[in-house]
């Protein structure tokens, strides 16, 4: 499968519940690159890049999130990333 990037925004109770940490774990376990960060409006934003099957797997995981999260909605879009990501990082 080809490499793709997905830009996603996750809303609900997704801050203060280790969402970014577990997203990084999921991404790294699936060989993805990119980043995840909290937004001022309470959402979490992520860029997931890599093998399409792996990206879709982590994208689906975002709808559930970690145990303490309560995900209300995930909005995502396929994008062409102009930045080459070296790993997967949490942006503060």
TrEMBL record:
<feature type="active site">
    <location>
        <position position="38"/>
    </location>
</feature>
<dbReference type="InterPro" id="IPR020456">
    <property type="entry name" value="Acylphosphatase"/>
</dbReference>
<dbReference type="InterPro" id="IPR001792">
    <property type="entry name" value="Acylphosphatase-like_dom"/>
</dbReference>
<comment type="similarity">
    <text>Belongs to the acylphosphatase family.</text>
</comment>
<dbReference type="InterPro" id="IPR017968">
    <property type="entry name" value="Acylphosphatase_CS"/>
</dbReference>
<feature type="domain" description="Acylphosphatase-like">
    <location>
        <begin position="5"/>
        <end position="92"/>
    </location>
</feature>
<dbReference type="Pfam" id="PF00708">
    <property type="entry name" value="Acylphosphatase"/>
</dbReference>
<protein>
    <recommendedName>
        <fullName>Acylphosphatase</fullName>
        <ecNumber>3.6.1.7</ecNumber>
    </recommendedName>
</protein>
<dbReference type="InterPro" id="IPR036046">
    <property type="entry name" value="Acylphosphatase-like_dom_sf"/>
</dbReference>
<keyword id="KW-0378">Hydrolase</keyword>
<feature type="active site">
    <location>
        <position position="20"/>
    </location>
</feature>
